[in-house]
Specification:
The protein is an alpha+beta fold. The chain has two domains: 234 residues, Beta-galactosidase, Chain A, domain 5, CATH 2.70.98; 459 residues, alpha-1,2-mannosidases domains (Glycosyl hydrolase family fold), CATH 1.20.1610.10. The protein is built from 19 helices and 38 strands. The strands form eleven sheets. It has a ten-stranded antiparallel sheet with strand order 3-7-8-9-10-19-14-13-12-17. Strand 7 and strand 8 form a beta hairpin. Helix 7 packs across helix 8, helix 8 runs antiparallel to helix 9 and helix 11 runs antiparallel to helix 12. The longest helix has 22 residues. The relative contact order is 0.09.
Length: 744
């Protein structure tokens, strides 16, 4: 028995030692969410924080049996690789080789996988990357001559014995360029035609234009390094030579590991379970996936005007779906890297200038602004940055935000000038809905995305409140007052009889009959947008106090919140998700899987029952975010959702970007700390915290007793400490009388 006890103690000591040796990047599991609940999975992305170069295995999701070649660069979030790299025997030459794969090991900074072609060629690939360049080490395990095929997919390619370069066309004015070279010089090079190497040709263009190297029979390992660029082939080569001194994949991976540890180490978790740390750091890693930095040694290509520019010392960023990321990803970046956030906002303003109309972008991508989704929420990133003391060109930002709202149409998924429904909104304070059978008359309205009149009215009301905050910062009190009045436009579509935001036609009549779960067609887009009326019932983040008043006071507001989490789907899951495929991750009618819901569990704080926020936050984190292949409930839009996990796991959340305030929830960890951009530290200590002990009993902030469920940015901007004493029963006296700020 004595020896058994000693053995157990030794094993426990070893386990503790191993855990203690783990660094932040060791907790990242890129496979979390690789099988989607319904729509798009997360992809196991290999990249450095906000790097231009990103890749992931070429497959639909984790259940895919085959890899379609090896990846080179992902140019837009959730898209497949541009170019394609194929390693094969000379008998298997084709534009894309399908591989069976096994023993795949993937980290944020490296990739290793065993591959086998359908003809039986076996090989192992190792990969590591820098910001704009990468290294492959490909070891052939079978005895056939080694070949490398580079497919431009849709572009042009050139080849020599020791280089391949070319471009792939992404849009009318955007190309991505590649320069790749082998450490082992090929014995034959040429263009791939009909499965053969045409050695007298050294260039090709068009669909699946491919270049090929064949290596000597005795070459069993091929080492490759490459650079990418959005400027030129020459710049791609320069990027490669600047970043990669050699072909050492292990050294490059080690450097990437250090970079990730520095980035992820800005938030330190000292007490918590290994599973919770894994979910936390994986979520934090996701927030660095976008936007990406396009500056290449001081220059960048902009698809917003099709030109190459000097970045003048401020890096240029793009690929940011702002409708998703303004809610929490941008506020998180303000805490951990405000300098980068300032550069991102400066990039928005450059885009607005380059597009010629000075309209703030809404969905800036590598290929330009795709103007997807609804509303113009870049204005929120500006308002939030100003409220928290960041450096912004306020006059230019105000002009771009105002013009983006007033001169561009409010019609979703459109970059057209304002039309008649925009004039109607200006005059009447809401977007009119079509009645059943009524024909669309505004050519700006997308035939599939529809008007989304309730979603657009609510979103624009919030945007105009944000605009009023920017006008205040400029000292334009008259304009600030005007937009502050516009920020109450949500009142025009509030149905006092039902307590919901309800579509109204151009004559001012409610659309009837109406079902807040199902009316609106596919994705409820005829009235809402991706989510139904139960979700948009709460989309007034800037004036929750007034929403409470509209609903009849705290008691009614709380009852309506409770009902959101309790109301059944009303139909089978098959029928519900057939119509509302984005509205997944359900608890009742609440959708954890779509960004307009992220703030909803925190709204109990505004009505005097913060213990319900504490319960709901723990419920959502435990139910929907887990360390497994389906551990993300819906589309994770490059930090749009996982930043909610980061904030909520720490114990607070920015419900209203534009207010320098954070709502308190229920932390998962006993001790955590954030290294702020100014070098100071904000600590969160949750004493007695556990799975059951999720309720706050008392609190102290910066050494003072704290009896309110929120704190201001200024309370933590210079560092500080929040101490929460946790218990397993609600303290219904704590935080009940000091509600978070609202416009009114």
């Amino acid at each position: 028995m004595k020896y058994i006890r000693l053995f157990c103690i030794a094993c426990l000591s070893l386990a503790v030692a191993c855990t203690a040796d783990r660094e932040p990047v060791d907790y990242v599991n890129p496979y979390i969410g690789n099988i989607s609940h319904l729509l798009v999975p997360t992809f196991p992305t290999i990249h450095l924080p906000n790097s231009m170069l990103r890749v992931y295995p070429e497959r639909a999701d984790y259940t895919s049996e085959l890899l379609n070649g090896l990846p080179v660069v992902v140019t837009n979030h959730r898209e497949r690789s541009a170019f394609n790299l194929n390693a094969c025997s000379v008998e298997e030459l084709r534009p894309v080789v399908a591989y069976a794969y096994d023993n795949e090991h993937l980290t944020p900074y490296s990739y290793g996988v065993d591959l086998e072609t359908d003809s039986g060629t076996r090989l192992h690939a190792d990969y590591a990357l820098s910001h704009q360049s990468a290294v492959y080490r490909i070891a052939f395990e079978t005895g056939t001559p080694a070949c490398i095929v580079i497919n431009s997919r849709n572009g042009a390619i050139r080849v020599g014995p020791n280089f391949i370069c070319g471009y792939q066309t992404l849009s009318d004015n955007t190309r991505v360029y590649l320069y790749i070279e082998p450490q082992e010089i090929s014995v034959e090079s040429g263009i791939l035609e009909n499965g053969c190497i045409v050695s007298h040709k050294d260039r090709a263009e068009g669909r699946d234009a491919c270049a090929v190297w064949r290596f000597a029979d005795e070459v069993r390992t091929v080492n490759l390094r490459y650079g990418i660029s959005f400027i030129s082939e020459e710049q791609a080569e320069k990027n490669m030579r600047r970043e990669l001194p050699d072909f050492d994949v292990k050294a490059l991976a080690a450097a990437g590991r250090d970079i990730w540890n520095e980035a992820l180490g800005r938030i330190r978790i000292d007490e918590g379970s290994e599973e919770d740390k894994t979910v936390f750091y994986t979520s934090f890693y996701r927030t660095f996936e976008r936007p990406i930095c396009l500056s290449e040694n001081g220059r960048y290509f902009s698809a917003f005007d099709g030109q190459v520019h000097d970045d003048e010392g401020t890096p240029f960023y793009t690929d940011d779906w702002i409708w998703d990321t303004y809610r929490a990803a941008h506020p998180l970046r303000i805490l951990v890297d405000r300098t980068k956030e300032e550069a991102i906002i400066a990039s928005y303003l450059r885009m607005a200038e380059q597009m010629g109309d000075m309209w703030m972008p809404t969905f800036p991508e590598v290929t330009g602004d795709t103007r997807r989704m609804n509303s113009n929420h870049a204005v929120a990133t500006v308002a939030d940055a100003l409220a928290k003391g960041l450096r912004v060109d306020v006059a230019k930002a105000y002009e771009a935000c105002r013009k983006g709202i007033e001169e561009k149409t409010l019609a979703p998924w459109s970059g057209a000038p304002a039309g008649w429904i925009d004039a109607f909104y200006r005059d009447n304070g809401y977007i009119p809905a079509l009645r059943p059978g009524e024909v669309e008359t505004d050519p700006n309205v997308h035939p599939f995305e529809k008007r989304q009149p309730v979603a657009v009215t609510l979103g624009t009301s919030y945007d105009q409140w944000c605009l009023s905050r920017i006008a205040e910062a400029l000292g334009r009190s008259g304009e600030a007052g005007h937009y502050r009045d516009c920020a109450r436009n949500y009142r025009h579509i509030f149905n006092a009889e039902t307590g919901f935001f309800h579509p109204k036609d151009k004559e001012g009549r409610w659309i009837e009959p109406f079902d807040y779960r199902y009316s609106g067609g596919m994705g409820a887009r005829e009235f809402y947008g991706e989510n139904n009326g139960w979700v948009y019932r709460w989309d007034v983040p800037h004036n929750v106090a007034d929403l409470i008043a509209l609903m009849g006071g705290n008691e009614r507001f709380i009852a309506n919140l409770d009902a959101t989490f309790r109301e059944p789907l009303g139909r089978s899951k098959y029928e519900f998700y057939a119509q509302l495929p984005d509205h997944t991750g359900n608890v009742g009618q609440f959708s954890m899987a779509n960004e307009p819901s992220l703030h909803v569990p925190y709204l109990y704080n505004y009505a005097g029952q913060p213990w319900k926020t504490q319960k709901r936050i723990r419920q959502m984190l435990r139910t929907w975010f887990r360390n497994d292949l389906m551990g993300v409930p819906g589309d994770e839009d490059g930090g749009g959702m996982t930043s909610f996990v980061v904030f909520s796991s720490l114990g607070f959340y920015p419900v209203t970007p534009g207010f320098p305030a954070y709502n308190i929830g229920s932390p998962l960890f006993g001790k955590a700390s954030i290294r702020l951009d100014n070098g100071r530290t904000f600590e969160i200590e949750a004493r007695n915290v556990s799975a059951d002990n999720k309720y706050i009993q008392s609190a102290m902030l910066n050494g003072r007793s704290w009896n309110q469920p929120w704190f201001s940015h200024s309370d933590i901007a210079e560092g500080g400490k929040l101490v929460l004493v946790m218990g397993d029963k609600p303290n219904k006296e704590w935080g009940c009388d000091a509600v978070p700020p609202s416009m009114d």
